[in-house]
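Moderator note: this is an archived Q&A kept for reference. The question asked for a predicted structure of one protein chain; the sequence and the answer are reproduced below.
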Amino acid sequence: MFALPKSEQTYKFILSRCVGDDRIWSAPSDDGETSMLIVSFVGQKGGVGKSALARVLAVAAARQSKNVLIADFDLEQLSCVEWGAARLRLGQFPEVEARAFKSLKKLRKTVEGFDLVVVDTRGLADELTDDVSKESDIVFLPTGTSMDDLRPTLALARKIARKTKPEKIVLILSKVGRSERQLEEARAHIENAGFLLLKAVWPQRDGFQAEFDSGRAGSEVSNPHLRQSAEAIEKAMLSHLFQFKALEI
């Protein structure tokens, strides 16, 4: 089983020390120059919360004054691009740019000056998913708690792990219902499969979609109960990102 080489106590220490550390947002390249961090959300099937979580992470980073781009590769849906347009139209702050891309080559050639690029891929895993996963610093795989979701997600995780560093693969339990039993069984299944699992979950709540339609995301929601859940997933994703980069410095 893949395990983080730091204790939870050290994990929290790294988070507290690194939130404002620009080194965390600048990955060293082979020639010694700094480059953007790339965090991708991939999946074997649609409807598991990839686009939602991509927007949540992007807003969380932007609220820390980081220059963030969402790269939307799902040209049929363009959920993130449409959300970005709504956010701009309705004057939501901080600004989060979202652009459509159809190839990783185009992303490499045209994007510069960002601290973080959040990649939202297509619902069905394909060759592009493999390429994006290889290029990413962290690969998040959202999944529901049912075996119908877990089986294809874990199959994709194993496929990606054969082609890149398995420790950068992190599963997220997404669109989670109110059954504690089903949640615990899903956690156990992922742990037995040997993959990292984000501690926080993304709950299934209708109110989140209404907020996305208004160009908001995550802890920007007005409902205090939804905000608490959103803050937990934001902190968990950022914590993992900060720790991952801190271990490389």
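Archived answer notes: The beta strands are 27-28, 34-35, 37-41, 68-72, 97-100, 116-120, 138-143, 169-176, 196-197, 202-203.
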